[in-house]
């Protein structure tokens, strides 16, 4: 373990400027939290946060040479913008009671760094640093970094009751850093897991996204189950735990198959959400034949419907929902022998910009099975789809070299008949893309009208 006195952190010039201003004017200032933790771990901090005994009003005055945004004066926070980068600066504070498990009833400013660090969530996030004073570590954060543990500052039940989202954050940090949850911290989450529903859907969704975007997402997903959080966040996934597939093609239950598929996808949130949800509907479609073999007929449709409910419940944006649902619904297409016409329809349903994800999901799905390791069908489908896209073959009505205006000029009244004729022309062009010229399609339309 590195001696605390030997810890030296390279602080950005802009942050040094802020700290120097406080020092010159007789105030303390420290970098604090995640930037200290990440610096010790030789990671590049995403944000540099500063804490000080200077009051918010005085901060606004002292830092007036920069752009200062009063982002949270009530809680003692301002954002200082230097060279288009924002730095949060917060007055030392002591939080009052958290009656709703989310926000303190009141905030009291304090002159004590020690008191400020006591209110923070985990020991590894409760360290402060200044070149002059070195590393300030009142709660054993360095020891827990060394031992690779996530541990609350003080009593876990108190820390989690202050903000129930901290339970999810503990799981996320454990997954991101590949650290274990300290036993009392783990038990604290289990004891209070039912309270996670008091947290806003948006905050839960963002933590879930961060877990999915870790190097090995299954670590976090397993921990969600072990801490009892999963059954409140994704009860549909909890049902998959231990669900025996009774299939010679699978050596894992549904949950562990899903975990394997998620782990085999790259860091792409759309792709990982699709991997997480692609078989979520299997339990409800399960049947056992006379030979004791399990079947999940049309599970892709059931998974699509369940995934839609989950994503709307977690308030994902419509574009993300559409992209993920298309992948979930179409992930079984590799088992079909598709004509070029059918592949064009598939591309249209999935969206050309989303097709690369479909193939990656299918390959990961095969990799998560026990005996299906032949990806030649997927590669063949990929090759044929890429050829169609490269040739810019028409895929939908908007790609036709004819429109409703052309048909109206031929005397077709505005209404459903135009749509019906365009659909008929689309069917012809899907089979014969070379017919997609304005003159040819007008000629075919005239023949249909006569």
UniProtKB/TrEMBL annotation:
Name this protein carries in UniProt: Polynucleotide adenylyltransferase/metal dependent phosphohydrolase
Segments forming domain tRNA nucleotidyltransferase/poly(A) polymerase RNA and SrmB- binding: 179-238
Molecular function GO terms recorded: hydrolase activity; metal ion binding; nucleotide binding; nucleotidyltransferase activity; tRNA binding
Pfam families assigned to the protein according to its UniProt record, in alphabetical order: PolyA_pol, PolyA_pol_RNAbd, tRNA_NucTran2_2
Names of required cofactors: Mg(2+)
Family, similarity comment: Belongs to the tRNA nucleotidyltransferase/poly(A) polymerase family.
Keywords: Hydrolase, Magnesium, Metal-binding, Nucleotide-binding, Nucleotidyltransferase, RNA-binding, Transferase, tRNA processing
Keyword presence, Hydrolase: yes
Swiss-Prot/TrEMBL GO biological process terms: tRNA processing
Domain Poly A polymerase head: residue ranges: 30-150
Alphabetical list of InterPro entries matching this protein: Bact_CCA-adding_enz_type3_sf, CCA-adding_enz_C, HD/PDEase_dom, HDIG_dom, NT_sf, PolA_pol_head_dom, PolyA_RNA-bd
Occurrences of domain CCA-adding enzyme C-terminal (ranges): 305-444
């Amino acid at each position: 373990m590195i001696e605390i006195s030997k810890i030296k952190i390279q602080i950005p010039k802009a942050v040094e400027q802020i700290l120097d201003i406080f020092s010159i004017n007789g105030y303390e200032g420290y970098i604090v939290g995640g930037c200290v933790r990440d610096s010790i771990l030789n990671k590049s901090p995403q944000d540099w946060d500063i804490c000080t005994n200077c009051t918010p009003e005085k901060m606004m005055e002292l830092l007036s040479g920069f752009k200062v945004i009063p982002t949270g004066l009530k809680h003692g926070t301002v954002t200082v913008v230097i060279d288009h980068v924002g730095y949060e600066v917060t007055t030392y504070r002591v939080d009052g009671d958290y009656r709703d498990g989310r926000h303190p009833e009141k905030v009291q400013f304090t002159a004590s760094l020690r008191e400020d660090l006591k209110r923070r969530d985990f020991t590894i996030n409760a360290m402060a640093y200044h070149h002059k004073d070195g590393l300030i570590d009142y709660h054993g954060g360095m020891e827990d970094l060394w031992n690779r543990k996530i541990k609350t500052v003080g009593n876990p039940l108190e820390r989690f009751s202050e903000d129930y989202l901290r339970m999810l954050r503990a799981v996320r940090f454990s997954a991101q850093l590949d650290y274990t949850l300290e036993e009392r911290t783990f038990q604290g989450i289990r004891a209070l897991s039912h309270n996670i529903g008091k947290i806003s859907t948006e905050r839960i969704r963002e933590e879930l996204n961060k877990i999915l975007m870790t190097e090995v997402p299954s670590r976090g997903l397993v921990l969600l189950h072990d801490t009892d959080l999963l059954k409140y966040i994704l009860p549909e996934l909890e049902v998959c735990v231990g669900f025996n597939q009774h299939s010679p093609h699978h050596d894992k239950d549904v949950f562990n198959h899903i975990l394997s598929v998620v782990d085999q996808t790259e860091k792409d949130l759309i792709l990982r959400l699709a991997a997480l949800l692609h078989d979520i509907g299997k339990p409800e479609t399960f049947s056992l034949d006379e030979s004791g073999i399990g079947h999940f007929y049309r599970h892709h449709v059931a998974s699509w419907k369940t995934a839609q409910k989950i994503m709307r419940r977690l308030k994902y944006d419509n574009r993300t929902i559409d992209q993920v649902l298309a992948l979930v619904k179409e992930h079984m297409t590799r088992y079909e022998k598709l004509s070029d016409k059918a592949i064009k329809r598939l591309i249209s349903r999935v969206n050309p910009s989303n097709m690369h994800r479909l193939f990656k999901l299918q390959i990961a799905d095969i990799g998560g099975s026990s005996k299906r390791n032949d990806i030649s069908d997927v590669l063949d489908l990929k090759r044929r789809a890429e050829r169609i896209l490269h040739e810019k073959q028409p895929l939908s009505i908007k790609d036709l070299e004819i429109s409703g205006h052309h048909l109206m000029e031929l005397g077709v009244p505005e209404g459903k008949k135009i749509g019906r004729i365009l659909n008929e022309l689309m069917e012809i062009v899907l089979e014969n893309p070379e017919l997609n010229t304005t003159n040819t399609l007008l000629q075919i339309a005239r023949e249909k009208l006569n």
